[in-house]
Design brief:
The chain has 16 helices and 50 strands. By secondary structure, it is of the alpha+beta class. It has 4 domains: about 180 residues, Immunoglobulin-like; about 280 residues, TIM Barrel, CATH 3.20.20; about 100 residues, Immunoglobulin-like; about 200 residues, Immunoglobulin-like (Sandwich), CATH 2.60.40.1190. Strands 30, 31, 34, 35, 36, 37, 40, 41 and 42 form a 9-stranded mixed β-sheet that branches. An 8-stranded parallel β-sheet has the order 20-19-16-15-24-23-22-21. Strands 1, 2, 4, 9, 10 and 12 form a 6-stranded antiparallel β-sheet that branches. A hairpin with a 2-residue loop joins strand 17 and strand 18.
Length: about 950
């Protein structure tokens, strides 16, 4: 018999049928319907400061008389309030490529220097062998996150542009969608994006190569974590107001159009009862979600969290225990509201009832014809909370006995250097293993056991949903979380209502990753076909391309997340283009015809580490001094820099305190965290660190007990220091009040035995503690202090768990929000440099190049350390040499800083392998620096 939710769902499905692959069909581009707080989605633009935002721009690029300018930009670039444009010219043409039956997201930004009554952005479509009509190309504003606080941690929402009554200083970030119908003839298409106002018109040419194939549907399981209960009576506190049976079709149509195909349902509370000694009840919401997935063609896994069901089984067991195991007739009276978790091992009776509940769930799934599903009994056991350890240890063996083929472990235990880390999937032989950090050993274990590899929370990025899982042979990735809208937490990447789904920049990045993954899977399928047909030469070519585009990608969580945040769309496009060319060759025996991009190559150097807002107080000088740190915890040395701090509550906490306070005086009383400061100094031996913290003692056995190299040291009362080096490697130092320390470089633990630490406590009436440390430069991959003028990104945080305080120097929502970290500048170098033989050691050190293969015409970017001579000529001379012997001199290139970002524009370079040679202009005879890279022929050249 259908209940009311089922009836509503059936009616909605009857009237709601849309084209599956249409990216626009399920979109809500206005966001006008109110959420449960009564507010619609807010629209807005970013801002910029013309005097500060374009430090490198050539004057001729933007006349003072022009009211606006525009540029294409990187889909992966972070949208910051303190916007700085990194180049000296605007990018006003794009060359693109796509399979048939898919769509592309093209980011561009318009800057206004004068108020405008109206601005128009349009296109006439793209023309080639056929036509991509104007209506298949649409524009969306990328709304700043701060305009919609409920999405602050997750999403930049996309809304239809509102381009009237615009202000000077507006920065309008846009996404242009180009939808390529499946019937589009292959070939090269051309057209323009036109930006106009008041008689001025700016044309931005587009070229698009449509490939002669269509990518198959996404395989594996990719998607979001969702709250497991639909919005309705009894369920209004957590889910979005639009998460209703009637809107499931809209959501999953949108989902499929983004190549997502799987969900994980958390905190499920089905209506279970224990009647006449048997488990019974309804899984209404799970069934509705499964039906909607199936009807929309989603073929990934439905992953179901069983924690609340295990708690209910425990409550039933406890009730039966009070009855002396005399099972009464009728309903025992235990509902989900009476469910009970515990921190001790669960009784055998609870396990037996859970086994019955599993059998009942599987029977209901079969009866309801659910999509293929997996089950988990606990998540993130690596947190090692007693309730999680007890739940997993008690109920995972039951799941593995009743239906082992459906068991999944979702864990955060490995890859963080914690003592005694456990690969629970390998230990317990779980067939599906979903981790937020992997290690090479864990991947080997999974391969040996023929277990499925899944990722979670590797970032809502193109890399994390594309080439990264391919490199790990993973079959899926899930991101926390969507459609959660509670008063005290919001995890939302989209907004669902009767009008459809408001998308976000982050979801579109994920879609691009899913396209990369689908392309790799299609190439794998073609390789298999060629092998079966005996065409081994073509098959080997395909294998080499797959290996090339996935080589060197990290599996460890923190390292992968950092890389996903900084790897450009151009770098990922080059990988995708190689896959597309291999697909064409395996399908038709030849690669697509392509040509060299016209133009002339050039090279320029820019300061690598700009302080984006020079009025920002989160900048600290670190003195480079010729001193030694004394072996005690006093601060008597004279080399210490100015105090960094005091550390403050995170902005969200301060906002809560403001809301609770009726006067400024009351707010100041509430906003008084424990005093916490840091001081730094750069010595010949290493980086010296001095911390002072009130209200904490080293003899606290609960919060200062962990030892060196413990990956869980952050759970103690501790400081955490974060450093992003010029080569964009991230280092992290954690130390507790007892002086124990853990150091991670690129997310990988480095044994901390060489880091010296000294502790003094108490240092004041609060019982505070001072910790002094010396970190050798080798921990940062260096032999000596940085040169004067070097800038590192930096943040200092304190986790004071005893009082529930999370404190930070920079204004971040979480410690890992790197775009909002502060900076430290190394200055006042009084160390005499040692003489160097520059004939054997290059004065130009290339310290970062993330991508050595690019599409011709794009920029190759890398970072160098440059030795500046105090007198004489500085700068460098650049020469290119092709593998066939062709030599192209690029001339002299001024170098403005000791750490510089080099931009090599590759226009006019033919396909093949190249070598770039850089010679120091002020040190004749010095050893040159060299960089090898590869140019791919342009798709549209």
């Amino acid at each position: 018999m259908l209940n009311s939710k089922m009836i509503a769902f059936t009616i909605a499905w009857t009237v709601f049928r849309l084209t599956a692959a249409d990216p626009y069909a399920s979109m809500d581009t206005l966001g006008k319907l109110p959420d449960k707080s009564g507010k619609p989605v807010q629209y807005g633009h970013g801002v910029y400061d013309r005097a500060k935002s374009f430090p490198h721009l050539k004057k001729e690029e933007w006349s003072r008389d022009d009211a606006f300018q525009a540029t294409f930009c990187d889909l992966n670039a972070l949208r910051r309030d303190n916007f700085v444009y990194p180049y000296d010219t605007f990018i006003q043409k794009r060359e693109l490529f796509s399979a048939r039956g898919d769509y592309l997201s093209i980011p561009l930004t318009v800057f206004l220097s004068k108020p405008l009554d109206k601005l128009e952005i349009k296109t006439s479509g793209l023309k080639g062998p056929g036509e991509i009509p104007q209506e298949r190309i649409r524009f969306f504003t990328v709304v700043p996150r701060d305009d919609n606080p409920g999405f602050l941690h997750n999403a930049h929402l996309l809304l239809s542009p509102r381009l009237r009554n615009l202000k000077s200083g507006d920065r309008i970030d846009l996404l242009a969608f180009i939808d390529i119908p499946e019937a589009t003839p292959p070939g090269i298409y051309k057209g323009n994006i036109t930006v106009s106002s008041g008689g001025k018109e700016l044309n931005m040419p587009l070229s698009l190569r449509v490939m002669n194939f269509k990518l198959p549907e996404t395989t594996g399981s990719f998607g979001f974590y969702l709250y497991g209960n639909l919005y309705g009576p009894g369920q209004t506190g957590v889910p979005q107001k639009g998460f209703t049976p009637q809107n499931l079709e809209r959501y999953f149509r949108f989902y499929r159009s983004r190549r997502l195909n799987s969900v994980t349902l958390y905190d499920n509370v089905p209506d279970l009862r224990y009647i006449d000694g048997k488990v019974t009840g309804e899984f209404t919401d799970i069934t509705l979600i499964s039906d909607a997935m199936k009807k929309n063609g989603l073929k990934g896994k439905l992953i179901i969290d069983l924690r609340d069901i295990t708690y209910w089984c425990n409550a039933v067991a406890q009730k039966l225990e009070t009855l002396g195991d005399q099972v009464p007739r009728g309903d025992l009276g235990i509902t989900m509201k009476q469910r009970k978790s515990q921190t001790e091992p669960y009784p055998e009776k609870a396990k037996r009832i859970f086994a019955e509940a599993l059998e009942y769930l599987n029977a209901e799934a079969k009866r309801g014809q659910w999509v293929d599903y997996l089950l988990l009994v606990e998540e993130e056991i690596g947190n090692r909370f007693p309730v999680k350890l007890a739940g997993y240890a008690s109920f995972m063996p039951v799941l593995m006995k009743v239906c082992p083929e459906r068991a999944v472990v979702v864990d955060n235990e490995i890859g963080y250097g914690r003592n005694g880390e456990i690969d629970r999937g390998a230990r317990d032989k779980v067939p599906y293993r979903q981790y937020n950090s992997w290690t090479e050993a864990a991947l080997e274990n999974a391969e040996k056991d023929q277990a499925q590899i899944l990722l979670f929370n590797y970032n809502p990025s193109r890399l994390s949903f594309g080439f990264l899982p391919q490199s790990m042979n993973a079959s899926g990735c899930h991101q926390w979380a969507d459609l959660w809208d509670s008063w005290n937490f919001q995890w939302q990447y989209t907004r669902l209502s009767e009008d459809g789904v408001v998308s976000s920049l982050e979801v579109e990045r994920i879609h691009e990753g899913c396209v990369d993954y689908a392309a790799c899977e299609f190439l794998k399928e073609l390789i298999q076909r060629k092998e079966q047909a005996g065409e081994t030469e073509l098959a080997e070519k395909g294998k080499k391309v797959l290996e090339k585009v996935t080589a060197g990608l990290p599996c460890q969580g923190d390292t992968a997340r950092n890389l996903s945040a900084i790897l450009s769309s151009e770098a990922l496009d080059a990988r995708r283009w190689q896959i597309f060319c291999a697909i064409e060759e395996l399908l038709r025996g030849r690669s697509p015809e392509s040509k060299t991009e016209t133009g002339n190559p050039s090279i320029k150097a820019f300061p690598s580490d700009r302080i984006e807002d020079r009025d920002n107080q989160y900048v600290a000088k670190v003195e480079i001094r010729d001193g030694k740190m004394e072996a005690h915890a006093e601060s008597t040395e004279k080399f210490w820099g100015k105090v960094i701090g005091p550390l403050r509550y995170l902005p969200e906490k301060e906002a809560q305190l403001k809301a609770l306070s009726s006067t400024l005086e009351e707010y100041r009383r509430r906003n008084a965290p424990s005093w916490s400061t840091i001081q730094l100094a750069a010595l010949p031996e290493g980086l010296a660190i001095l911390s002072n913290a009130n209200h904490v003692r080293p003899d606290d056995k609960f919060h200062s007990s962990r030892k060196d190299d413990d990956g869980d040291l952050w759970k103690d009362d501790c400081f955490e220091l974060f450093f992003e080096l010029p080569n964009q490697e991230v280092c992290r130092l954690i130390f507790n009040a007892a002086g124990a320390k853990t150091f991670l470089r690129k997310g990988v633990p480095v044994p901390a035995g060489k880091i010296r630490s000294f502790v003094k406590s108490p240092i004041n009436a609060s019982g505070g503690t001072r910790v002094k440390l010396l970190v050798p430069w080798s921990y940062f991959g260096m032999e000596a202090p940085p040169d004067r003028g070097t800038v590192w990104k930096f943040n200092a945080g304190r986790e004071f768990h005893t009082y529930g305080m999370i404190l930070s120097w920079a204004r971040v929502s979480s410690f890992h929000q790197q775009e909002k970290w502060g900076h430290i500048i190394f200055s006042n170098n009084d160390i005499k440099p040692l003489p160097v033989n520059w004939s054997t050691r290059s004065p130009i050190n290339m310290i970062l190049c993330l991508n050595h293969t690019i599409i011709g015409g794009n920029n190759l970017e890398f970072t160098i350390n440059y030795h500046k001579e105090k007198a004489g000529k500085n700068g460098m001379n650049a020469v290119l040499r092709h593998e066939d012997g062709t030599r192209i001199p690029l001339g002299d290139c001024p170098v403005p800083a000791q750490t510089a970002r080099i931009v090599l524009n590759t226009a006019g370079l033919k396909a093949g392998k190249w070598e770039l040679t850089l010679k120091h202009g002020g040190l004749p005879g010095s050893k040159p620096a060299k960089l090898n890279f590869e140019i791919l022929a342009s798709p549209c050249g």
